[in-house]
Structures are given as C-alpha cells and as structure tokens.
Amino acid sequence: MAISTETPPQQQHKGSSEGAAVDQKRWTLNDFDIGKPLGRGKFGHVYLAREKRSNHIVALKVLFKNQLKQSQVEHQLRREVEIQSHLRHPNILRLYGYFYDQKRVYLILEYAAKGELYKELQKCKYFSERRAATYVASLARALIYCHGKHVIHRDIKPENLLVGAQGELKIADFGWSVHTFNRRRTMCGTLDYLPPEMVESVEHDANVDIWSLGILCYEFLYGVPPFEAKEHSDTYRRIVQVDLKFPSRPVVSSAAKDLITQMLVKDSSQRLPLKKLLEHPWIVQNAEPSGVYRG
Ligand SMILES: Nc1ncnc2c1ncn2[C@@H]1O[C@H](COP(=O)(O)OP(=O)(O)OP(=O)(O)O)[C@@H](O)[C@H]1O
C-alpha cells in the first residue's frame, strides 16, 4: 500500500479556502479502499483506509447513528466535527471531512501510525524526563494554538492522545471541547457590551487545559495521576484541596516538580501560562527542540 502522509485527500473544489473545502467535498464510501481495523470505540469502529484518487492513507471512523442517538451525543459529535475540522496544527489530529449514509456517520481522520499514547505509557510504566518534557511542550504549543482560536479542549488525557509515524503527539478527541466565542455569542448576541471580566473569562476558562496538562505531566513522570484514590469521593476531595504529593520513586527532578506545582494551582488565574511553561527551565533543558521524541 502506497503511504502518503503529507497531502490531504483530494478536494473537489479547488481554489476554495481549506476549511470550506472540507465541508464542500461530498465523500462516499466508494472513495475509499478499506484496510485493517485500527480499533473500536464506544460508538463504532476505526479502519485504516486509502482515498482512491490521491492514495492518501487515512483513518476512517465509522459511527452508528442509532447508537449516537441512543446516547444523545449527536450534538457533541457535531461540535467535535465543526471544531476539529478547522484546526491545523502538527500536534492536533486532522479531521479532513465526514459523510454519512442511512445507518452510519463516517469521519475521515489523519492516520496516527503509532497508535495510542496510553498504551505506550502502560508499557513503559512512566516516561523519561526528556520524553515527558517533549510531549508536554508539544501539547502546550497545540493548546496555545487552540486557545488562540477560542477553543478549549477540556479533556486532555492519555486516552485522547495518539502518536504519529515520527513519534509526534496528536490530540485526537475534541468531544468535550468548546468554542467559547460561539458560546458567548449565543448567550449574549455580541461581545461589544460585555465588561472586561467577562471578556477575560475566555482566557480564564482556557486555564482548565493548563490544569489538565499539569495532571498529564505528573502522570507521564510517575505513571499514575496525582489525585488517584480508591474512592471517587476521595479523589474529589484531593482535587479540591489540591492534595499534591510527589512520591520518592520514581526519582523525578525538582525542576519537573516545580513546573507541575505551578500548573496545579487551585485559582485558575494563577496557573502558569502556557507561553511561560515553554520558557520553564525543565522544558528548555529537556524537551527535544524538534518537538519529536524518537526514543
Ligand atoms: N486516527 C487514528 N489513527 C490510528 N488509530 C486510531 C485513530 N483513531 C482511532 N484509532 C484507534 O481506534 C481506537 C478506537 O478509536 P475511537 O476514537 O473510536 O475510540 P475511543 O478513543 O475509545 O473513543 P470513544 O470513547 O469516543 O469511543 C483507538 O483506541 C485507537 O487505537
């Protein structure tokens, strides 16, 4: 199978803007050769596929409409598609387009050849500081890009991260993301009359992603999330109290702990901004400048 990862699937309407082309092309199942299954999720299956005309390799996610309806997630899926199809960043999984038939919805996704990060973490138990810092820096860059477009991910966790052929991290699941600008518009009609504290709350909201990235950084280095507990109520309490403890094993540098401590701050306005994170000594000294961890 000829593998091309550079060019997106052919688009029908040349000359239109990239984002518009995604919407305008009318795909059907006949446009693809279907390959091996890549995995299955709650609502359907994911297959390796090749777009016939361009030979472009993609991941085709097939979702069953009746299951989406039953779980009342159609609205969430629509939002996910709307948001993800407009994002272009090396660390964000591309959504090239979608189509549907009577029973199914198909999402045409960028293929992430190295699969789920979650499985890698399980295999290694925890990552080296170099690897963790490289991942955290790429995620910070992807989130800065999202926040610049008023998109908050809200669900950054290892299960939602895939790894590309070069070892680059890809944020994959935008099911819980929100476009704050849209939300504000529907609520208030226009931004013009909003007081500063409400306009600022866009950034304020975005700080939830800094918290999640702090949790993820901890999990990369220790193999478990920081507030884990047997009982749900205990996890809740530990989060609310920010009951942050650093075990003595595995050994983790004080610079890494300092960064995590600056991200896991209860007052969301006091969390280390993502741009500052990229300048933190632990990131500067450990993250691969290429943004790619090759092992
Ligand atoms: N773009 C992709 N490239 C490579 N493998 C993928 C891709 N998307 C999904 N997969 C594989 O298919 C599996 C199922 O993906 P899917 O997104 O449907 O399920 P999920 O992550 O469990 O999400 P959900 O809980 O929303 O169903 C993933 O766990 C992953 O192994």
From TrEMBL:
InterPro entries: Aur-like, Kinase-like_dom_sf, Prot_kinase_dom, Protein_kinase_ATP_BS, Ser/Thr_kinase_AS. Gene3D superfamilies: Phosphorylase Kinase, domain 1, Transferase(Phosphotransferase) domain 1. CDD domains: STKc_Aurora (cd14007). PANTHER family: SERINE/THREONINE-PROTEIN KINASE IAL-RELATED. This is Aurora kinase. Its EC number is 2.7.11.1. It comes from the Eukaryota. Keywords: ATP-binding, Cytoplasm, Cytoskeleton, Kinase, Membrane, Nucleotide-binding, Nucleus, Phosphoprotein, Serine/threonine-protein kinase, Transferase. Residues 1-14 have a biased composition (Polar residues). There is a cross-link at K157 (Glycyl lysine isopeptide (Lys-Gly) (interchain with G-Cter in SUMO2)). It catalyses: L-seryl-[protein] + ATP = O-phospho-L-seryl-[protein] + ADP + H(+); L-threonyl-[protein] + ATP = O-phospho-L-threonyl-[protein] + ADP + H(+). It holds the Pfam family Pkinase. One of its GO terms (biological process) is mitotic spindle organization. SMART domains: S_TKc. GO terms for molecular function: ATP binding; histone H3S10 kinase activity. It is found in: Cytoplasm, Cytoskeleton, Spindle pole; Nucleus membrane. GO terms for cellular component: chromosome passenger complex; nuclear membrane; nucleus; spindle microtubule; spindle midzone; spindle pole.
